[in-house]
């Protein structure tokens, strides 16, 4: 929306009928404590405290400093801070300001006179003064001194001087001349004799008229010299010079001159400059030979209009004279107008009515005369005068944040100097919005992934929502929305950062227990009332190869290990058994492969890579061992791969109905050791007692033969019993078949008969061993 440029010229002097003609005057002592009551301002202005609050009463001063404070509740005017008269004023001190009221606009001029208290002691320009006085000086000779200065005024300034200790040669004389100029002198009372006393010292004391009085002291040193009877004399008692405040450093202000009729060293004059008390940082310097006074740094009219200096001229004999130098600073237009904002309202609601006051400000210029005249112009908004140099910035039409969310207003103030100086102040007015837009996610749903066995508090993704509003209405915070219904409990493992929408998984996850989870994330703005939007976040758990294959068959916990019965007549490809394994992982991490890791005869067997079937690779031969042990490796396809092993055994039998067992079993290691011992003992006994040894050996052979026959049968029975039991436990016997083996101790042959399937029974004779599994196989021993 384009706004027409407007230029307003405002006069610095306004006729305001609402301003009170006579000011309200008060007085207060300087250094009064903060909060001290100055006067009943509301009562003197004819107002009540309630009117002060209702009409937004405030104090406004021209220099912008607030020395006083208005208590709206009581209507009293109180001291706002420390008041130092010497800092604020040079002589009579009066602090003016205005009491500003609104609705309707009204001003009261208030003037507070700051009364001096005796808070400064007299101070001499120098801590020590030295006089070189001729011993032939006549009584009544006067020796001028620089008077002590007291920053206080009136009766609190210096009133009298005295000498301590009392001196018979000098007295102090002080007072004012006809011209009004004050003087301070030492008066010689009687002649001095250098041969009696070459020098003397005493204190000069200045006392002010305060209560209690304050005093200042300087040390006076008298050096008695021989004849130098003419002191320097200045051509003027007082010099006045002018200098512009923009004069460069080193510029000559004026030249002082003093003469001395004496000749030689007594007629050589040197100049010395001293400034007023409290002005240690001097802006002036004097040439001690020529008397030229120059400035050492640029002067500022706004800081000080005039500078007062003292110049002492001293001849070579020690006589001196003092003159005063006044330097007036001439103002130049070196200060641009200053725009001071009293109040400013931003942002503005977009429903603000036209004519609303946006800002109240004042314009002032520190320069004097024409350099301080001010005009103002601005763009876009209307500017209207309020009082004196106060102006109001107001709206002129309805505002619409959707069309223009921000207005930049520039106010320019120019003075009447040559050349004119200007200053510009920019008002940036923001238009505030109402909360009429809910947050909007940048996606309709989110899918995030995390690998199982993750570390705690892992970052998995972020959700993001934007709000078309501004300020707090656009500040979006995120949270997990409660799920509706008891069957949709929120997953406690997911968290969302309320500030940036980052989604974290708080604890390690297991793919085998949780494969995915869904939560609802809510985005809410900070408006009143807040608006919100929801989005679904689906967390997918990615599988890791963290589970080794598990062998289900043959069972590895059974003891003894399972055995499979294989006829020796079986051809190549005969199915002996099948290794069954599973993997809790998914995907290629669960793809299993089977490998023959170790076997009694590796060339006899083969294992299906994918199926796990154990088959004969070739026909069985007589050279093959009856009992074969195999170790099958089950490996998954993960990275890195994990594996497990399955152990099984096979019995190679010629005929299941006619099992031939060996007549003698190989001797055990214990039997071999025992037999060797017996043989050694037998040889010893044979050599000693052949006959006795022969009889004993025959007897033991007879006993040994009987024991071996019984042991062969028991060993074969135990071996076959163990193999069949393992096969039955592993479930590898053909189903449904029942085997019955009859073994006797008196025969080398045993029976192996097939019986029909029978029901399992827990109660059997102690002579029977029954092994029953899912394949309905059994073995009966007799």
UniProtKB/TrEMBL annotation:
<dbReference type="InterPro" id="IPR020894">
    <property type="entry name" value="Cadherin_CS"/>
</dbReference>
<keyword id="KW-0812">Transmembrane</keyword>
<dbReference type="Pfam" id="PF16492">
    <property type="entry name" value="Cadherin_C_2"/>
</dbReference>
<dbReference type="GO" id="GO:0007156">
    <property type="term" value="P:homophilic cell adhesion via plasma membrane adhesion molecules"/>
</dbReference>
<protein>
    <submittedName>
        <fullName>Protocadherin beta 3</fullName>
    </submittedName>
</protein>
<feature type="domain" description="Cadherin">
    <location>
        <begin position="340"/>
        <end position="441"/>
    </location>
</feature>
<keyword id="KW-0472">Membrane</keyword>
<keyword id="KW-1003">Cell membrane</keyword>
<feature type="domain" description="Cadherin">
    <location>
        <begin position="235"/>
        <end position="339"/>
    </location>
</feature>
<keyword id="KW-1133">Transmembrane helix</keyword>
<dbReference type="InterPro" id="IPR002126">
    <property type="entry name" value="Cadherin-like_dom"/>
</dbReference>
<dbReference type="InterPro" id="IPR015919">
    <property type="entry name" value="Cadherin-like_sf"/>
</dbReference>
<dbReference type="InterPro" id="IPR032455">
    <property type="entry name" value="Cadherin_C"/>
</dbReference>
<feature type="domain" description="Cadherin">
    <location>
        <begin position="125"/>
        <end position="234"/>
    </location>
</feature>
<keyword id="KW-0106">Calcium</keyword>
<feature type="domain" description="Cadherin">
    <location>
        <begin position="20"/>
        <end position="124"/>
    </location>
</feature>
<dbReference type="GO" id="GO:0005509">
    <property type="term" value="F:calcium ion binding"/>
</dbReference>
<keyword id="KW-0130">Cell adhesion</keyword>
<dbReference type="InterPro" id="IPR013164">
    <property type="entry name" value="Cadherin_N"/>
</dbReference>
<keyword id="KW-0325">Glycoprotein</keyword>
<feature type="transmembrane region" description="Helical">
    <location>
        <begin position="675"/>
        <end position="699"/>
    </location>
</feature>
<feature type="signal peptide">
    <location>
        <begin position="1"/>
        <end position="21"/>
    </location>
</feature>
<dbReference type="InterPro" id="IPR050174">
    <property type="entry name" value="Protocadherin/Cadherin-CA"/>
</dbReference>
<dbReference type="GO" id="GO:0005886">
    <property type="term" value="C:plasma membrane"/>
</dbReference>
<dbReference type="Pfam" id="PF08266">
    <property type="entry name" value="Cadherin_2"/>
</dbReference>
<feature type="domain" description="Cadherin">
    <location>
        <begin position="566"/>
        <end position="669"/>
    </location>
</feature>
<keyword id="KW-0677">Repeat</keyword>
<feature type="domain" description="Cadherin">
    <location>
        <begin position="442"/>
        <end position="551"/>
    </location>
</feature>
<dbReference type="Pfam" id="PF00028">
    <property type="entry name" value="Cadherin"/>
</dbReference>
<keyword id="KW-0732">Signal</keyword>
């Amino acid at each position: 929306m384009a706004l027409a440029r407007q230029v307003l010229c405002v006069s610095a002097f306004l006729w305001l009928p609402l301003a009170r003609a006579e000011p309200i005057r008060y007085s207060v002592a300087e250094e009064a404590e903060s909060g001290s009551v100055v006067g009943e301002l509301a009562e003197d202005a004819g107002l009540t405290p309630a009117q002060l609050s209702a009409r937004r009463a405030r104090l406004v001063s021209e220099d912008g400093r607030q020395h006083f404070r208005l208590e709206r509740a009581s209507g009293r005017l109180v001291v706002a801070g420390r008041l130092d008269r010497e800092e604020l004023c040079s002589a009579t001190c009066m602090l003016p300001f205005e009491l500003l009221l609104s609705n309707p606009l009204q001003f009261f001029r208030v003037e507070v006179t700051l009364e001096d208290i005796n808070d400064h002691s007299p101070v001499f320009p120098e801590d020590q003064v030295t006089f070189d006085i001729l011993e032939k000086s006549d009584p009544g000779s006067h020796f001028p001194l620089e008077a002590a200065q007291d920053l206080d005024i009136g009766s609190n300034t210096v009133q009298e001087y005295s000498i301590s200790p009392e001196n018979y040669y000098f007295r102090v004389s002080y007072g004012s001349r006809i011209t009004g100029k004050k003087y301070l002198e030492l008066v010689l009372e009687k002649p001095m004799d250098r041969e009696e006393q070459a020098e003397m010292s005493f204190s000069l004391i200045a006392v002010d008229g305060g209560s209690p009085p304050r005093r200042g002291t300087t040390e006076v040193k008298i050096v008695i010299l021989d004849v130098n009877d003419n002191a320097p004399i200045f051509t003027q008692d007082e010099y006045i010079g002018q200098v512009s405040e923009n004069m460069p450093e080193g510029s000559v202000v004026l030249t002082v001159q003093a003469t001395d009729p004496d000749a030689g060293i007594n007629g050589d004059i040197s100049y010395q400059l001293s400034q007023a008390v409290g002005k240690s940082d001097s802006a002036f310097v004097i040439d001690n030979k020529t008397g030229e006074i120059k400035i050492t740094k640029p002067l500022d009219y706004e800081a000080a209009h005039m500078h007062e200096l003292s110049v002492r001229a001293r001849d070579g004999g020690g006589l001196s004279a003092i003159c005063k130098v006044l330097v007036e600073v001439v103002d130049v237009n070196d200060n641009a107008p200053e725009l001071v904002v009293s109040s400013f309202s931003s942002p503005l609601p977009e429903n603000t009515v036209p004519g609303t006051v946006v800002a109240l400000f004042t314009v002032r210029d520190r320069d004097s005369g024409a350099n301080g005249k001010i005009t103002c112009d601005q763009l876009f908004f209307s500017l209207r005068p309020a009082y004196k140099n106060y102006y109001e910035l107001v709206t002129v039409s309805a505002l619409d944040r959707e069309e223009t969310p921000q207005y930049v207003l520039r106010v320019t103030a120019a003075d009447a100097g040559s050349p004119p100086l200007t200053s510009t102040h920019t008002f940036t007015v923001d238009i505030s919005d109402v909360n009429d837009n809910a947050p909007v996610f940048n996606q309709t749903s989110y899918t995030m992934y995390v690998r199982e066995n993750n570390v705690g508090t892992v970052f998995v993704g972020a959700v993001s929502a934007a709000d078309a509003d501004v300020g707090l209405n656009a500040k979006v915070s995120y949270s997990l929305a409660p799920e509706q219904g008891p069957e949709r409990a929120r997953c406690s493992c997911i968290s969302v950062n309320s500030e940036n929408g980052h989604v974290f998984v708080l604890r390690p996850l297991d793919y085998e227990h949780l494969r995915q989870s869904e939560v609802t994330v809510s985005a809410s703005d900070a408006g009143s009332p807040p608006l919100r939007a929801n989005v679904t976040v689906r967390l997918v758990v990615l599988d890791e190869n963290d589970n080794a294959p598990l062998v289900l068959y043959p069972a590895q916990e059974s003891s003894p290990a399972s055995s499979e019965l294989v006829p020796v007549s079986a051809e190549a490809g005969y199915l002996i058994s099948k290794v069954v394994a599973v993997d809790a992982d998914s995907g290629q991490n669960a793809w299993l492969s089977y490998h023959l890791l170790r076997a009694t005869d590796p060339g006899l067997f083969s294992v299906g890579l994918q199926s796990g079937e154990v088959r004969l690779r070739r026909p069985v031969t007589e050279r093959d061992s009856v009992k074969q042990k195999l170790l099958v490796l089950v490996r998954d396809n993960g990275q890195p791969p994990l594996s497990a092993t399955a152990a099984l055994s096979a019995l190679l039998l010629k005929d299941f109905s006619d099992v031939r067992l060996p007549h003698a079993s190989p001797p055990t290691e214990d039997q071999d050791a025992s037999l060797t011992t017996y043989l050694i003992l037998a040889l010893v006994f044979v050599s000693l007692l052949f006959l006795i040894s022969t009889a004993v050996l025959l007897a033991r052979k007879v006993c040994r033969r009987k024991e071996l026959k019984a042991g062969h049968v028991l060993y074969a029975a135990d071996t076959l019993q163990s193999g069949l039991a393992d096969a039955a436990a592993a479930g590898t016997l053909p189903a449904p078949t029942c085997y019955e083996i009859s073994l006797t101790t008196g025969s080398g042959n045993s029976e192996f008969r097939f019986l029909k399937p029978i029901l399992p029974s827990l109660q059997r004779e102690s002579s029977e061993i029954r092994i029953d599994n899912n394949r309905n196989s059994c073995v009966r021993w007799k």
